[in-house]
Structure formats: C-alpha cells, structure tokens
Amino acid sequence: MIVVGITGASGVIYGVRLLEALNELNIENSLVISDAAKTVINHELERDVEDVIKLADNYYEFHDLTASINSGSFKFDSLAIVPCSMKTLSSIANGYGANTITRVADVALKEHRKTVIVPRETPLRSIHIENMLKLSQEGATILPAMPAFYSEKETVQDQINFIVGKILDSLEIENNIYKRWE
C-alpha cells in the first residue's frame, strides 16, 4: 500500500495524477489531504475535494492523530507527499508530527520505508535546502517537480505524467506513464 499526502502547495495536480496512476496500476493507496490542500484543489483544479477523495482506497482525516497509518505497527509500503509545502517539509525534517501527514512521514522514516517528498517552492531559501538535506540524509527521496523536455511537442499533461512517473520509479513501481530517454 502506498500512502499519498497532498499538502497546500501549488501543484496538487501531481498528487491527484499519482492517485489516478496507482488506480490504473491496481495498487492500493491511502490518502491524506491537508486543509490548505483542499483550498488549493478547489482553486487550481476547480474540482470538488470529494472527487479527489473518491480516487483513494482509504482516506484519513488531516487532524486525526489516532489514524492507523500513524502507527509504526501499521503496514504500508511507502509514502509520497505530493506536493509538499515548505511548512510540511520543515515539520517532517524537525520531527514535528502535529498532523496526520507529518506523523505518517515520521513513521515512514523511522521504519525505513520508501519516502518521496515532492517540494513545491521557488526560489528556495537556505533553510529549505537544509531541511531537504536532513530528509535526504534520513533516506527520503527529494524529487522536485522539475519536468524534462525530451521532445518538442510535449503537453502540460506530458509534464505532469513525467513527474508522476519519476515518483513511481522512486517507489520502485513499474510504469510507462511517461516517455523515457532513448
């Protein structure tokens, strides 16, 4: 099972597309959406949050620290936080598990489960880079949403699929969601 956290940074389409891809690949998933992400989903996607929740096999409330995914005894394979706000990144890097997303990240890291963080901020301050370094040193994969331009006629959807494909690659999930370099 893959846990997907969507936080309140621009780029929520990456998290939504990841859920769609996991469904296409028949991979069980669990979802947590931050309060800020719900606002961004409505703004960026003009989509109802309930439609996004329906993409998940399991849904956990953002402020439910008693959620089963917040326990090291709960078995899940990996975690992807897509997109990851700098607030969430900072909380995880500094061990501040004050909500379901930051707590499940704490569990994933302490249990040495695959953890992919897709930060969304530009430009970056030194503290942002330091926090990414902390998480990288703990075993997390830091995967900024930086698209590739392998062909001349790529669409925005191709760019989204490229990032989601790279997330799936980092989680060691076979996929051909994006055009690979030949």
Structure in words:
The protein has a single domain, classed as Rossmann fold (3-Layer(aba) Sandwich), CATH 3.40.50.1950. With 182 residues, it is of the alpha/beta class. The protein starts with a strand and ends in a 12-residue tail after the last helix. The model has no long low-confidence stretch (mean pLDDT 96). It has helices spanning 12-24, 35-45, 49-53, 86-93, 100-110, 126-137, 156-170; strands at residues 2-6, 29-33, 58-60, 78-84, 114-119, 141-142. The protein has a 6-stranded parallel β-sheet, sandwiched between helices. Dimethylallyl phosphate binds at residues 150, 166. Pfam families: Flavoprotein (PF02441). This is Flavin prenyltransferase UbiX.
What is this structure's SSE topology?
Blueprint lengths: L1 E5 L5 H13 L4 E5 L1 H11 L3 H5 L4 E3 L17 E7 L1 H8 L6 H11 L3 E6 L6 H12 L3 E2 L13 H15 L12
Parallel strand pairs: 1-2, 1-4, 2-3, 4-5, 5-6
Helix pairs in contact: 1-7, 4-5, 4-6
Catalytic activity: dimethylallyl phosphate + FMNH2 = prenylated FMNH2 + phosphate
Enzyme class: transferase
Keywords: Flavoprotein, FMN, Lyase, Prenyltransferase, Transferase
